[in-house]
């Protein structure tokens, strides 16, 4: 029997990018342990083993409780995937490092600053990266605050701590801004209690700068351009392609180096072709949903993260711009809701040069995963 390269604990196994990560880890000889009370998740989500008595990251459990569970499986390194897991493990990183478990995250204060959209915008301004004009708003006086800030409609209304596409809306009037915040409060009162902002709307194409770093030293980096999103108003990438613009790379490096960041992060920008400039939208200090693109281009962030966490060297990985990935389920969902996109979606489906997530993972793997999501 082959000895695994190492045993890894992946904090969240259901997201689509987690499946890419698990696929890569297992393909390169790693043993992957997840946390789930469902025995069937080992089959549907391709885990080698699972920790059935999982602990909720948001409950901030004593790290010793996690260490006991990880030790029982001989875990060598932790791979945080979600915001909740990244927050928890950044807060308690030293306890895991002291126990000899590999982990690469920034100090919690740095992580929390970058996760907060208002604080991260202030930081970006301080290192010379352009950001949208932003104002804190409340339901009671959203319209007045937007007017005082000199913002014109539409504006982007979002919670200051990342909550996905369901906490980002476009307001075309003061009344809409009020109603959006009310909707957020109904959906998640705590998200609104942490704060809501209104941002200047930036008309441009979505793009991203991605990095793996240690104390601000960049170990791997990659850029992409969003081709289609689900939903089109702003959500997950349904189709994207590799990209390399010197101004985007320079802006991303300022953020990573200026914060002395450790771990992986995504910096989301809008490209404004008329000005040939990039505007930072937000920073996500965690793994990202479209990671398959970088992996297919040879910049293997999942593997490089583990190598860095275990103190191993990271290979230099240049990549070619213009390679495209299609996330089949997300792109088909986009086409069903927005019929004018059907032609583009079908064109990518039929183009053999476009990497499909279903083919990359393998049809049997992909079907098992989709069945697992359906069961949830």
Automatic annotation (TrEMBL):
Top-level division of the source organism's lineage: Bacteria
ATP-grasp domain boundaries: 121-310
One GO BP annotation of this record: SOS response
InterPro entries membership: ATP-grasp, ATP_grasp_subdomain_1
Keywords, in A-Z order: ATP-binding, Nucleotide-binding
GO cellular component: cytoplasm
GO molecular function: ATP binding; metal ion binding; ribosomal S6-glutamic acid ligase activity
Pfam family membership, one: ATPgrasp_Ter
Identification of the protein by name: Putative ATP-grasp enzyme-like protein
Protein source organism: Magnetofaba australis IT-1
């Amino acid at each position: 029997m082959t000895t695994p390269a190492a045993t890894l604990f992946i904090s969240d196994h259901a997201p689509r990018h987690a499946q890419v990560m698990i696929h890569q880890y297992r393909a390169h000889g790693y043993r992957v342990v997840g946390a789930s009370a469902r025995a069937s998740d080992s089959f549907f989500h391709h885990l080698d083993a699972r920790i059935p008595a999982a602990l909720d990251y948001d409950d901030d459990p004593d790290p010793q409780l996690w260490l006991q569970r990880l030790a029982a499986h001989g875990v060598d390194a932790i791979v945080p995937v979600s915001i909740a897991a990244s927050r928890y493990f950044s807060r308690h990183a030293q306890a895991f490092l002291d126990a000899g478990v590999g982990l690469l995250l920034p100090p919690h204060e740095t992580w929390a600053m970058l996760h907060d959209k208002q604080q991260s915008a202030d930081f970006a301004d301080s290192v010379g990266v352009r950001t949208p004009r932003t104002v804190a708003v409340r339901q009671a006086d959203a319209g007045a605050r937007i007017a005082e800030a000199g913002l014109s409609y539409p504006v982007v209304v979002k919670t200051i701590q990342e909550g996905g596409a369901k906490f980002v809306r476009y307001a075309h009037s003061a009344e809409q801004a009020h109603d959006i915040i009310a909707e957020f409060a109904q959906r998640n009162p705590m998200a609104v209690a942490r704060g809501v902002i209104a941002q200047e709307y930036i008309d441009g194409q979505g793009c991203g700068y991605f990095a793996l770093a240690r104390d601000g030293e960049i170990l791997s980096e990659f850029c992409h351009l969003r081709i289609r999103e689900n939903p089109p108003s702003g959500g997950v990438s349904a189709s994207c392609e590799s990209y390399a613009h010197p101004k985007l790379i320079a802006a991303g490096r300022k953020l990573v180096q200026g914060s002395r960041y450790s771990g992986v992060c995504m910096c989301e920008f809008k490209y404004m072709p008329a000005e040939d400039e990039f505007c930072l939208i937000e920073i996500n200090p965690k793994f990202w949903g479209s990671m398959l693109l970088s992996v297919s281009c040879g910049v293997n962030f999942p593997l490089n993260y583990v190598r860095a966490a275990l103190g191993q060297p990271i290979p230099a990985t240049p990549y070619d711009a213009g390679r495209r990935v299609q996330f089949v389920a997300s792109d088909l969902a986009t086409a069903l809701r927005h019929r004018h996109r059907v032609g583009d979606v079908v064109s990518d489906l039929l183009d053999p040069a476009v990497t499909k997530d279903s083919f990359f993972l393998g049809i049997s793997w992909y079907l098992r995963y989709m069945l697992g999501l359906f069961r949830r």
